[in-house]
Amino acid sequence: MNAFFAQLMAGLATGGIYASLALALVMIYRSTHHVNFAQGEMAMFSTFIASMLITAGWPYWAAFFATVTIAFAMGAGIEAVLVRRLRNAPVLAIVVVFVALLVILHSLAGWLFGYAIRPFPSPFAEAAVAGGLLSPHQLGAIGVTLLMLALMYVFFRYSPLGLQMRATAENPTSSRLVGVRVNRMLALGWGLAGAIGAVAGMMIAPVVFLDVHMMSGVLLYAFAAAVLGGIGSAPGAVAGGFIVGVLENLLGTYVVGAELKLSVALVLIIVVLVAKPSGLFGKAVVARV
């Protein structure tokens, strides 16, 4: 029984990381209605920047916030330079561009930082918590995810910028007519997604170590979390992340084995898309023809 609870708690901790990246996917989907397949590589690239700053002697939290700022600028820059020009392009063309961006960032990170696996520090203390079932970093990752969800809720619910972003996501044309600067709102959405992805990368790097391949499997789990919770719902992404983390740990340990853990995410995506495409917290969209 103790082993079961240990796997359950570890799944919740892992799910917190999946939820962070799923939040970034939701941010971009809500603003552009497209899935950014390069989100994981953007997070990985940002984490390498954080490692470079820490190695140069920066305190952890100074490097953390500097990296979040750089990731925000990188996300907004990608939207302004690349995505904005594809706004009226066919869906397949946009998918190809996102996949190309994934490959470019992956190769660029390998060229700049190398392919060696390196450790990444955790900002949390080493003492065991929760009766030894959770490490301080695991508990801290859960807390960071919930804090980001709370900040996003306050931002979208109470701030003028959040209201303008919501309006832009719902109806860009009407938003322009009432004076909303739609291009700025879309760039802001991509910037926030880049910042959230950077946080996810810095939370997972101490667990899996830092290398150019670190986010490949994580992105798949995060996508499964976003689909399960509802690709347009931020609370759904967080809930989906925790559910996927628990399912991955429990099924990987007691049912399918560690070698087939990745298939859990694939099966989950297929089941949700077939049974309930809108996800647990998403809203079904009905269009009158």
From TrEMBL:
<feature type="transmembrane region" description="Helical">
    <location>
        <begin position="41"/>
        <end position="58"/>
    </location>
</feature>
<keyword id="KW-0813">Transport</keyword>
<dbReference type="InterPro" id="IPR001851">
    <property type="entry name" value="ABC_transp_permease"/>
</dbReference>
<feature type="transmembrane region" description="Helical">
    <location>
        <begin position="221"/>
        <end position="247"/>
    </location>
</feature>
<keyword id="KW-0472">Membrane</keyword>
<feature type="transmembrane region" description="Helical">
    <location>
        <begin position="90"/>
        <end position="117"/>
    </location>
</feature>
<dbReference type="InterPro" id="IPR052157">
    <property type="entry name" value="BCAA_transport_permease"/>
</dbReference>
<keyword id="KW-0029">Amino-acid transport</keyword>
<keyword id="KW-1003">Cell membrane</keyword>
<feature type="transmembrane region" description="Helical">
    <location>
        <begin position="137"/>
        <end position="156"/>
    </location>
</feature>
<feature type="transmembrane region" description="Helical">
    <location>
        <begin position="254"/>
        <end position="275"/>
    </location>
</feature>
<dbReference type="Pfam" id="PF02653">
    <property type="entry name" value="BPD_transp_2"/>
</dbReference>
<comment type="similarity">
    <text>Belongs to the binding-protein-dependent transport system permease family. LivHM subfamily.</text>
</comment>
<protein>
    <submittedName>
        <fullName>Branched-chain amino acid ABC transporter permease</fullName>
    </submittedName>
</protein>
<feature type="transmembrane region" description="Helical">
    <location>
        <begin position="6"/>
        <end position="29"/>
    </location>
</feature>
<feature type="transmembrane region" description="Helical">
    <location>
        <begin position="185"/>
        <end position="209"/>
    </location>
</feature>
<keyword id="KW-0812">Transmembrane</keyword>
<feature type="transmembrane region" description="Helical">
    <location>
        <begin position="64"/>
        <end position="83"/>
    </location>
</feature>
<keyword id="KW-1133">Transmembrane helix</keyword>
